[in-house]
Amino acid sequence: MRLNRIWLFTLAVFFAFGVFINTPAIAANKEKQQTKSTAKINSKTTSKTAKKSKTVRVTVIRSAQPVVPARPSLATALGLRGQHDHLNLKSSVAMVVNQDTKEVYFEKNPSVSLPIASITKLMTAMVVLDGEQPLDETLVIDSEDVQSDRSSRLAGGTVLTREEALLLALMSSENRAAYTLGRNFPGGVPSFVAAMNRKARELGMDHSHFADPTGLMSENVATAEDLTRMLGAAYQYKMIREFSTWPALTMVIAKRPQKFLNTNHLVRSGDMNIGLQKTGFINAAGKCLVMQARVNNTPLLLVFLDAVGTQSRFADAVRVRDWYERMPPGAQSIRRLM
To answer: Is residue 146 situated within a structural domain?
Structure first.
């Protein structure tokens, strides 16, 4: 009996000792299982998160600010755009005048004073040439000239002669070139603008006003009738004729690098017998064109203001040419300019 008790006690001690030894192993095993379980859960969570991240949509928030359209031209605001005429012209204002006899063959809203944009440069050129300053005098594009037009191709510091500036102002419609011509006039730009308005009065342009040499300001205004007077006067200057028509291109390239020139706006002499032309555009003026051309051996002064598109003003000139060519000899004019 005693022996049995000793054996049971020994067995109990041995069992307890075994449990004590195996407890860390059991705990470690449990910890491993918990780690694996946690890893599986994390793996599933990560996988789900990854899958979810693929389906997440990125919302692009567009600007709530509306696109501001360009302001309509003054002619459009006055209700002149789209008015019908028997030549089906796309210009709001138009006029056709015999240069020699001053007879008016066609007119459309001829008495409305409207912005004329770079057509202004014809007056700028006349005032420069009337001033008789040396054409070979060197001019430099300075900071004031740069301020006149931020988009010009003439960089500050560019050196050119007065003649080259005049050429670029007429043929390439370079605003900085036109402005520097005014700035280098005796008395500067204010004196130059005053001379422009005096010249306009001398020509009988009673419904016109000039505010700067470039035409960028919408305060440069004239009627179609006044523009025929200015166009006829500008035609009397040989240099203006040469610098504003296609045959001058060879001479232009020789004088100035092609990068400064923009001749896309010119109607080639092969298309029409043109003696002088000038285009213009600012938002307030729309697309404009004035032209001296010979049709049926008759010198005509053509004015087109606020055309619908860039090419429409040239198409209008062609429409007028075709119409005039079909006119019977001795056709009656509408009236004669005084």
So the answer is: yes
- pTM (2 d.p.): 0.75
Supply 103's token pair: 């007879």
Q: Is residue 202 part of a domain?
A: yes
Burial class (CB in 10 A: 0-12, 13-18, 19+), 124: buried
**276 assigned to some structural domain:** yes
**pLDDT, tens only, 8-66:** 344 344 444 443 444 444 444 444 454 444 444 444 444 444 444 444 444 444 555 56
Active site includes 118? yes
The residue segments making up the domain with residue 144 are: 74-329
| 52 part of the active site | no
Catalytic residue among 73, 152, 172, 173: 173
Domain count, the chain: 1
* CATH code assigned at 179: 3.40.710.10
**Residues contacting 70, CB < 8 A, separation 6+:** 283
What separation in angstroms does the CA of 45 have from each of 41, 50, 52, 57?
6, 8, 10, 20
Is residue 48 annotated as a catalytic residue, yes or no? no
